[in-house]
Write a structure and sequence with these properties.
This protein has helices at 10-22, 33-42, 59-68, 84-93, 105-122, 152-163, 171-178, 189-201; strands at 2-6, 26-30, 47-51, 74-79, 97-100, 127-129, 132-135, 140-143, 146-148, 169-170, 210-213, 217-220. It has 226 residues and is of the alpha/beta class. α2 (33-42) packs parallel to α3 (59-68) and α6 (152-163) packs across α8. The longest helix is centred in the middle third of the chain and has 18 residues, at 105-122. The model has no long low-confidence stretch (mean pLDDT 86).
Length: 226
């Protein structure tokens, strides 16, 4: 999952970044509201972690812009204020959850997981192509009725390819969905990860589903040789 953290305290931002990366999430950081809003419009995120007290444009303003533009991203708001009025305001503006500083990091992670599950449960219940199935609510993958165990990055690529099945997905799109800003899409990490994914979902099965479009990216569809 790709997460944007908008937090003006560098120590807090880096702490959240490290913890989220350890959970195999891709993380982008912004240290003010304007930069956070720019990144939120330029990229597709699964969750935005948004501090209320930001220099310049505050978190309430950023949230208002996101919801006015009908950005469907989940938003977890952070604040040092323990006032009911602030929490009510954030929720009324469209925040999905609220966490008051200081907070326990395990609770923070639990809130993130809950938002991701909620987003998955509101979408299509099961993604399918031929005999390949992915349930975004449980993160379970099956091919030919057999469970397939995937680590975070191959799973994220498969989720993207299934949601865009029949369409060519570029390397840039894959890098933006699965990795963060510092990732170099011109390296060989995407190829290596797709190779790992193929070993899990295509090797020993027919038809092959993941196909390379040379010089562009990948497409998931049945009925052709990979």
């Amino acid at each position: 999952m790709r997460i944007l953290v908008v937090e003006d305290e560098p120590k807090v931002a880096r702490f959240l970044e490290r913890g989220l990366r350890q959970q195999a999430h891709a993380v982008d950081l912004a240290f003010d509201g304007e930069d956070g809003l720019r990144l939120a419009f330029e990229n597709d995120y699964d969750v935005v972690v948004l501090d209320v007290m930001l220099p310049g444009r505050d978190g309430f303003s950023v949230l208002t812009e996101l919801r006015t533009a009908q950005k469907a991203v989940r938003v977890l708001m952070l604040t040092a204020r323990d006032e009911v009025g602030d929490r009510v305001r954030g929720l009324d503006l469209g925040a999905d959850d609220y966490l008051v500083k200081p907070f326990d990091f395990d609770e923070f992670l639990a809130r993130i997981r809950a938002l991701i599950r909620r987003a998955a449960s509101e979408g299509q219940t099961t993604l399918r192509c031929a005999d390949l199935e992915l349930d975004p609510r449980t993160r379970q993958v099956r091919r030919g009725g057999k469970p397939v165990q995937l680590t975070a990055k191959p799973y994220a690529i498969l989720d993207l390819l299934l949601r865009r099945q029949g369409q060519v997905v570029s390397r840039t799109e894959i890098s933006e969905h699965v990795w963060d800003q510092r990732f170099d899409p011109m390296g060989n990490v995407i190829d290596v990860t797709v190779h790992q994914l193929r070993d899990k979902v295509d090797k020993g099965f027919e038809p092959r589903l993941i196909h390379t479009v040379r010089g562009v990216g990948y497409v998931l569809r049945a009925g052709e040789q990979a």
